[in-house]
Amino acid sequence: MKTITENGLTWTDIEKPTKKDLDWLKNSFNIHTIVLDELIPASQREKVEYFDNYMFLAMHVPVFHQTKKTTKPIELDFLIAENHLITIHNEPIEPLKDFLKKCENKPELKSKYFNSTTGHLFYFISEELLNFAERQLVHIGKNINQVEDDMFKGAERELIRDISVIKRDVLDFRVAIRPLCRIFHSLANRGINFWPEKSEDLKIYFNDLIDDYERVWNEIANYTDTINALEDTHTNLLSHKTSTIIRTFTILSFITFPAMLVVAVTQMNPADFWIVAITILFTTTFMWVYFKTKKWL
Fold it and tell me: What architecture is domain 2-239?
């Protein structure tokens, strides 16, 4: 448990909450038992719940795993009281660590973050999370560019797995970030009433979160369209290559069929060798010229 206090506001970050931590939450903030039960184990879906003296939010942060080559959603819960904001998570979250370092090492930023209400503090933490999510998209863009570069280099079959991995990564990212839209809209429409004196100001801040979210969502939507288009192109190239191979073997079969027929009919007697050879050469040449004229070769 780490705590930062400034200007009458307190932020407490709890990683891997224990029974002792839950008891502290219950005794200090009168958190309902139902809410506490959702902290251990973590909830599987997003939530925005309003109570008399606090709000409970459950969201997910998209984190890319290099070894698995996919994005994993990590849950982050918020308990927001009038003068106290609490974050709870079961795994390390990089943007929270970055936010903590900024508060510890840059007094001017700490004073800015803790200058008004817990709603404003939530805004700055959410901004850090959205900026982190946008940075997570960089590897997706690089992978898509790599697939695009390799597509016309004769490696169509090898690209099947690469495209499938990218599509899974994009899907996992979308699943993690999509619920944030509902959470931010709920805060902008209803959550601002938790701070009546600052409601109009907070509405501007929460609407800004919506705009930042839409920027990230539009970027991942653009990557979705791009990888789908590349998959269609890849499928067409692979289909064309397969058709070309099948056509070539079919033509070769037709070219060699007359020669095989002549050999079968004459049973290849030694005395007739040159006659058969000339006949095979003639029929093969005729078939080759015919297919060439039809532009099938």
Answer: 2-Layer Sandwich (3.30)
